[in-house]
Amino acid sequence: MVETSPWGVVIPRVEKLRYLDSIFEERGDTDSDIDHRIRVRWKKWRNASELVCNDKIPIRLKGRVYCMVIRPAVLYGAECWPIKKTQVQRLMAAETRMIRWMCGYTRFDRIRNVVFREKV
Fold first, then answer.
1. What is each CA distance from 47 to 62, 64, 70, 80, in whole angstroms?
2. 92 found inside a domain
3. Nearest-CA neighbor of 37 among 24, 18, 21?
């Protein structure tokens, strides 16, 4: 559908709009924006991986870097999200994967998430 502005300019109607690094959908869903934010978080993770995956750096310092650099990348614009429980779980799962990786463990080590979160 195409709409015309009062000035005679044709404005195309789109299903998704990217503005200020956030994705807005016509239906009002936030799934694509959350997926985009998770991808941005992993990009920040890759940029900082030399620091957060280094065994010589203390875990507390890695945790501070994570909280100051990586976490804000995903929370940008989050105050506007009408978020659902499943979306919160996806965000938490991505964060838990990064924290486990930062500590040098995998899920097969069978260490509870609470232990990692206390360390970091």
1. 14, 16, 10, 27
2. yes
3. 21
Total of domains in the chain: 1
The answer as to whether 5 is a domain residue is no
Which helix H or strand E contains 25, and what residues bound it?
strand 22-25
Beta pairing partners, 2? 12
- Could you state, in chain order, the average pLDDT of each consecutive group of 10 residues for the chain (120 residues)? 70 77 76 82 84 85 84 76 83 85 80 77
Q: pTM higher than 0.85, yes or no? A: no
Per the document, the length of the chain is 120
Instruction: Quote the domain boundaries for residue 97.
Output: 30-119
Closest CA to 18 of 37, 42, 1, 4: 37
